[in-house]
Design goal:
128 residues; alpha/beta
């Protein structure tokens, strides 16, 4: 097995400035680092235990199967904050049959983002 020291998702948006405004301003993700210059410069955001790098440009949106999973403390509070910031909600928070509370949004290129709350008592909260 390869010993992975760090990881990040590389996202090549169709409009880098629009995507940086979405992830940085609308979602409020904190910047880990920035590099390069100009409109296609790179911005790396913290994603809890990982990173999201928005850099470069693509002529086409990312693959339709790409999804981001972002865990938050309280999905209802996240919903209210995202609405205040002008983020369109694809689906409001719902407790799923598997016990997680999930809300869906999309980035400007249509990348689906699931905002997840892991309620107290859920198996994901316990360590084996």
């Amino acid at each position: 097995m390869v010993h992975v020291l760090s990881s990040r998702i590389l996202l090549r948006p169709t409009d880098p400035e629009r995507s940086r405004a979405f992830y940085g301003e609308r979602l409020g993700l904190c910047v880990y680092r920035e590099f390069g210059t100009g409109p296609e410069r790179g911005t790396v955001y913290f994603l809890g235990g990982g990173f999201l790098e928005v850099s470069g440009r693509s002529d086409e949106p990312p693959a339709p199967g790409l999804r981001l999973w972002l865990q938050v403390e309280d999905a209802a509070l996240a919903h209210d904050e995202l609405v205040r910031r002008g983020v369109a909600i694809v689906r409001p928070p719902v407790r799923e049959p598997w016990g997680l509370v999930e809300m869906w949004i999309e980035d400007p290129d249509g990348v689906r983002i699931v905002i997840v709350e892991v309620p107290a008592g859920h198996p994901l909260r316990s360590r084996p």
